[in-house]
Amino acid sequence: MSTYAWPYKNEMLEEERVDCDVLVLGGGLAGCYAAIAAARRGQSVVVVEKGATTRSGAAGSGFDHWESACTNPCSQVTPEEIAWAYVREQDYYSNGIAHYIECREGYDRMLDMESFGGKIRDTEGEFIGADFRDEETGLMFAYDYKNKFTLRVWGSTFKPALHRELQRLGVKIYDRTEATALLTVMENGKKRGIGALGMNVHTGKFMVFRAKSTIMTMSRPARVWLFNPDLVGLCEFRPTQSIGSGHAMGYRAGMEFTMMEKSVKGEFSAAGRSFPPYGTGNNHNTWYAATMVDARGVEIPYVDRDGRELKTVAERYYPAPGQKFFLKGGVIDEPKYEYRGPETVDFETLMERGYQLPFYADLSKMPELERKVIWGMMVGEEGKTKIPILENYNARGFDPEEHLLQSYGTGWQSAAFLAQERQLFGAPGGIITDWDLKTNIDGIYAAGDQLYASDCCGFAAATGYYAGRKAAAYAKTVELGAVSQEDVDREKARLYAPLYVENGMDWRELNMAIAKAMQNYCGGIKCRDLLEEGLSLLESYERDAVPALSCANPHELMRAHEVMDILEVCKLIINACLLRESSSRPLCFERSDFPETDPKKDNHFITIRQENGKIIKGEVPHDYYGDLKTEYEKRNQDYIGGER
């Protein structure tokens, strides 16, 4: 076994204490915008980020589109229309508050980004003359070319630009520092957040962050059902370190969650079972609306929502007669606002029509600028595509003007995911908040992927900035709280314990065991006996396996902490599943012991939190947020009349 010298100094026995007005946990897109909003209001701001803020988070390597920029000068829709469409598209299991903020303020955050140095329009004239480009503004649009509310953007330029702005504003950034626990106190019979604890993942230094208000902007959970210890970096679409630690921290602190019982069948993750996202020819999202052909080169036609076959490529990007708009291209279960291409038609139906496998994306059959914007801009800016997909394929001779790219869509190949292989994708569960994006704990706010029914980059940026405004206002009304030394000592002991275990368990072993437990006991079909057996198994891991974790350096220690958090999230998920005693189609939730689907008695959000180890169930009406425009404007006149 090879050995190497750890390149960073050892600060395991050191402790640093930091005070600020506003503490932001997570330096991704939502966290950066939250910090900027708070700093603009004169507050001292600290950002705590496990990676390096300049490239961290789900948007760190880039993204290709910005949804719901409903107030851009070319838009033909209102924030109200699109926000309510999101809510209806999810059968009201949706976050109306956050989606309205996204639709109302998303374009404002785009203009912010442009002022920071990010690229949001075709300034070089590369796509002049394209149907999707507005000649006056240089803005470029995706999916719906009539209504123009989703922008194509150069997302790889965004995080460095945000990092520069944070530095310009004097925000204190603690990179390579994981947040591990929330600090709370009881005041006047109510819990208040006063900061967080953490650890430097390079040096092991213990960190105590004290703040007047805290904003949680960390990732949604991952590596829950799908994990391959040999292909860790391909286990999820998002970065390896984005695993839901904020959910675990919040759950331990008594925070309230909803929709945690929702999980969709795995299809948008590699995990050794498929190809990297956007690395195969399809017509989903980044590839929309690529021409698809079968093995003989016969084109598979697109049809609109009414079943009318579309004869030209241009028609794929415009609403059907009588249709106001459609939300986005590609795959959404039970599409209600979008065109249907080959991936959204039953495989059996395609076979009945005589199409032959395998299928391919054929960009050569598309107009030049449509081909160029898919292969070159969209594939290249989205997620992890720039180097492993675009540059790698080009270097090996792929030419979209003459070559086809095979499709490996779910359903017809051996790599198709199994029913028990699930993901927290597609508007998953998360923290439920009020209209200020404040959690049930005073002084703690949430944004981005911490929120239930979270969406994409526009959602993260808009909710992050909004939470930053509200947290800054709250911070002006309170004083710093007193940190309990008992809390500090308890967290230190928990974090450092694996360093003192010799010849113990590697974090990958426990992550693999957790994923298999979730597949076996919380898979596609659930029942009380299975769920309780799974919960008992997870509790045995917590009791027996966690104390056996062994680490040799702070990096391994960070990974061990992540797996501890994954374990906590899994307990949250199973307990949430036990609370919903019926099946639900929009929640992708099936119980064999409660087969009735979406009964009226359960037509609401079920919330879950824990208090002194006891699970507390709550119920919240789907329309708890009221009329979106009215409630938003009631609370945001300062923004509407001033900063915006």
Give a description of the structure.
Helices cover 30% and strands 14% of the residues. The longest helix is centred in the C-terminal third of the chain and has 26 residues, at 554-579. The strands form 6 sheets. Strands 1, 2, 5, 6, 7, 8 and 17 form a 7-stranded mixed sheet that branches. A 4-stranded antiparallel sheet has the order 16-9-20-21. It has 644 residues and is of the alpha/beta class. The chain contains 16 helices and 21 strands.
What's the story with the biggest beta sheet?
A: 7 strands, mixed
Structural category is alpha/beta
- What is the average per-residue confidence, as pLDDT, rounded to a whole number? 93
Percent range of helical residues:
25-40%
The dominant shape is: globular
Low-confidence stretches: none
Taking all Cα atoms into account, the compactness measure Rg is: 24 Å
